[in-house]
Design brief:
The chain has one domain: Histidine kinase-like ATPase, C-terminal domain (Heat Shock Protein 90, 2-Layer Sandwich), CATH 3.30.565. About 30% of the residues lie in helices and about 35% in strands. The protein contains three helices and six strands; from the N terminus they run ββααββαββ. It has a six-stranded antiparallel beta sheet, with helices on one face. A hairpin with a 2-residue loop joins strand 3 and strand 4. The longest helix has 18 residues. The chain is globular. The relative contact order is 0.19.
């Protein structure tokens, strides 16, 4: 679903809760940002959403649906990913030999702000790119 508002653009997208989710999120995000004429942040946003969705699929278990919310207001792009797990994302200590575990460090470096909000049946991880 895509909604147009006076002060920006927004969309909510349900994603499959499986290995296809990250690819689906990247495709939807890239297409919407291009359609909205807000494509200067596309590469960073696509990498960030891929990391968030991959984390959710790997760590949230079989806890329901993934929902991606996108909002552009002025120059700020806000992405929110809701899942059914209360497990919080953690930026682990990076060891050079690690092949995994860098996702939240990437998110932290590419976004202006990010955080987590818990709700009754899970959490919402949000990020903002300026």
């Amino acid at each position: 679903m895509v909604a147009v508002r006076d002060k920006g653009w927004s969309a909510n997208v349900d994603l499959p809760f499986d290995a296809r989710a990250a690819g689906a999120a990247r495709e939807v995000l890239r297409g919407l940002l291009l359609a909205w004429g807000h494509d200067r942040q596309t590469d960073d946003a696509v990498l960030v959403v891929s990391e968030l969705v991959t984390n959710a699929v790997q760590h949230a278990g079989e806890r329901g649906q993934l929902r991606l919310a996108l909002r552009v207001t002025g120059e700020v792009l806000r992405l929110e990913l809701a899942d059914g797990s209360s497990v919080q994302p953690v930026a682990r200590e990076i060891v050079d030999s690690d092949e995994r575990g860098r996702g939240m460090h990437i998110v932290d470096q590419l976004t202006a702000r990010w955080g987590v909000e818990t709700h009754g049946d899970g959490k919402r991880v949000w990020v903002e790119l300026d």
